[in-house]
Amino acid sequence: MYSYLFIGLLLFLIGLLGSVLLKNVIKVLISIEFMILGVNINFVTFAAFCDNIEFNGFIAALFYVGLGAVELAVALYIFYLMYKKKESDNIEKYTDL
Amino acid sequence: MINNPIIFYIASVLIIGFALIALFAKDVIRSLLAAVMVFFAGALFFYILGSEYNAIIQAAIYGLAVPVIIGLSIMFCQHGGKYRGGKYRGGKDSEDKDSDNEGLLKKSNGKGFAVPYITLLCAGIFILAFVYLVMMSLVMMPDTFHIMEIPQMTPFDNVLSFARGIFIDYVWAFELVSLLLTIVIAGLSMFDGRKNV
């Protein structure tokens, strides 16, 4: 169980590192998806090892997949609108809306 | 649930390695392809944890649909740019190379001062993970892989738990997520119809 949790933690840390340090907007969004995937791995791990009856973690992971897709669609559209104004994918230029 | 350490190690190396490649790839397309591999490796994790439904959803949404959306946004954002030699050129982005390179914090002279620290951090994470996995395979593996009570579930139990969770226990959350998806689709369509954006 702990090995799966550790992999989820590593993936979350990698996503956190990328979302803080990278400048490219699309890479930042991909890093946020990595963080969501790490959280989902932890949900499924806890459900598989600690909740053998109801599997609530499976349902939570399912909801987070949907919410992650929604967040990505909205964020990409906002990025597209900002890109038309700024003509750059550098996140440091997106200081105003 | 597949209780095989070799599959776990392979999936772990795949997911961590491709995640780092996705972060530090020089152009966005390679980063996206590495991210696709990470998402499929996540689906493999879900499968070996016994959640086939989550694995299918993960592979279908994150492995196929999300990369298509990201790829389309990359294509839309190339106004007259050319894809040459693995880097985007054209528009204003050809002048600021820092946006498409490593993307790390840079000094005014162009040299990245954060690169050594991030490399050390990633190396530390890798060494920690390697030591942990070696220790676990030598000493702690019986505790984690064999002694713990492994859930015995049939595919029918899996589907039954999903159906009970979605349609009985968490039906309001399920409906709210459905409503949110509908609002997003309608909102994006309204944004697209606006002229002064």
Q: What would your notes on this structure say?
A:
- The complex is a heterodimer of chains A (97) and B (197).
- Chain A has a single domain, classed as Orthogonal Bundle (Helix Hairpins).
- In chain A, 79% of the residues lie in helices and 0% in strands.
- With 97 residues, chain A is mainly alpha-helical.
- Chain A contains 3 helices and no strands.
- The longest helix of chain A is centred in the last third of the chain and has 31 residues, at 56-86.
- The relative contact order of chain B is 0.08.
- Chain B is built from 6 helices and 2 strands.
- In chain B, strand 1 and strand 2 (87-89) form a beta hairpin.
- The longest helix of chain B has 33 residues, at 115-147.
- The model of chain B is unreliable at 80-111 (pLDDT under 50).
- In chain B, helix 1 packs antiparallel against helix 2 (28-48), helix 2 packs antiparallel against helix 3 and helix 5 packs across helix 6 (171-193).
- Chain B is mainly α.
- At the A-B interface, helix 1, helix 2 and helix 3 of A face helix 1, helix 2, helix 3, helix 4 and helix 5 of B.
Overall, the morphology of chain A is elongated
How many beta-strand segments of chain B? 2
Helix content of chain B: 55-70%
Spatial gap, N to C terminus of chain B: 50 Å
Helix percent of chain A reads over 70%
Helices and strands of chain A: which structural class? mainly alpha
**Strand percentage of chain A:** under 5%
Radius of gyration of chain A, whole Å: 16 Å
Biggest sheet features of chain B: 2 strands, antiparallel
Structural class of chain B: mainly alpha
N-to-C span of chain A: 44 Å
The helix tally of chain A amounts to: 3
Beta content of chain B comes to under 5%
Total helical segments of chain B: 6
List low-confidence stretches of chain B.
80-111
Q: How many strand units of chain A?
A: 0
**Backbone shape of chain B:** flat
- In CATH's first tier, which class of chain A applies? Mainly Alpha
